[in-house]
Amino acid sequence: MDLQAMSKKFTDVFGEKADGLYFAPGRVNLIGEHTDYNGGHVFPCALTFGIYGLIRRRADRTLRFFSMNFPEAGLIESSLDSLIYDKKASWTNYPKGVLWAMGQRGVQIPSGFDFLINGDIPSGAGLSSSAALEVLTGLAVRDTFGLALDMTDLALLGQKTENDFCGLSSGIMDQFASAMGKKDSAIFLDTQKLEYAYVPLALKHSQIVITNSNVKHSLVSSAYNERRQQCAKALSLLQTKADIKALCDLKPEQFEQIKGVIGDPVITRRAKHAVYEDDRTVRAVECLKKNDIRAFGQLMNESHISLRDDYETSCPETDLLAEIAWSVPGVYGSRITGGGFGGCTVSIIDNDAIDAYKAKVDAEYEKKTGKKADIYVASVGDGAHRIE
Ligand code: GLA
Description:
Blueprint: H1 3-14, E1 20-29, E2 41-42, E3 44-57, E4 62-67, E5 76-79, H2 93-104, E6 113-119, H3 129-145, H4 151-165, H5 173-180, E7 185-190, E8 195-200, E9 206-212, H6 220-238, H7 252-258, H8 265-289, H9 293-309, H10 316-326, E10 331-337, E11 344-350, H11 354-369, E12 374-377, E13 385-386
Parallel strand pairs: 4-6
Antiparallel strand pairs: 1-3, 1-13, 2-7, 3-6, 4-5, 7-8, 9-11, 9-12, 10-11
């Protein structure tokens, strides 16, 4: 990122220099998909892709926003006194939502600010650009006004923004990964207790490879919210048979014994995914700790199949990318990552096999889908922080 160009733009747009420069990363989830709103485990890591933000405190209550990613939207103005969702306010609904969420928590912001952002996360790819923007805003505002909030609070405020301001009933994974990421480690997070451990990504001779299908599903939020409702329905039925708080409190064997109470086959498959995916995630982390990348990759493949067949959040393009990956020797595992319905796959690939994988995607993906895939070798970075 050209930080000098950002500083210059800030002065051009707002007339003065910024007080601080901040960064919040996107994330990729290695395994543990659609478990975070089911009280389960996730295993994401923060990327070195992210969003940078420059902020300057103002004396009045005005908020002024500018994004170098959407320069055509120009300068967008608002006020601390009108923190309401407005479709026309486009991307600024996220920072406004964070301020609203702070207010809901009783955290008062004394004055407005100018905020300029520039990001390098491919948007709509399922790499959590919105979570990064929420965490970035929370951090920049916290530091600028000296608010008593820790990084977990910032993740929770971001989730509240997403859920209650922007209308996506997401879990905590994305914001937590953006706030709490650690270089070269993945975060093993228990989303029910918010307890976590960093697991070093000692992949030795292999890399995490992200492949963007470039499919953006327009109904992501309604389909996502529907999955969440189906899980809630399954939980209320299973609770008549077991003393559980969340679907992921069940082990697969227990689930098999009582699943009959659900009745509906679609809802049974949704619950099955959540229960088995949580079990896979816990086992996958054990495999990684033992440096067993093959077994880890095998669990990633099983995760994809479950998302494809039981949870139905994959799509033909991401299925094709996973199948291409599975057919290349030296690919340990590959699966769709994130909320789904398009977006990216994540794969663990031996260094010696990356070129063969790229060549096979180039040869087959566009021919079969009419779209071009983008492939990135991921670097795992730190969570949100102040740069200067
Ligand atoms: C989206 C949500 C997360 C999580 C994933 C699926 O990224 O924001 O909370 O539910 O989907 O694992």
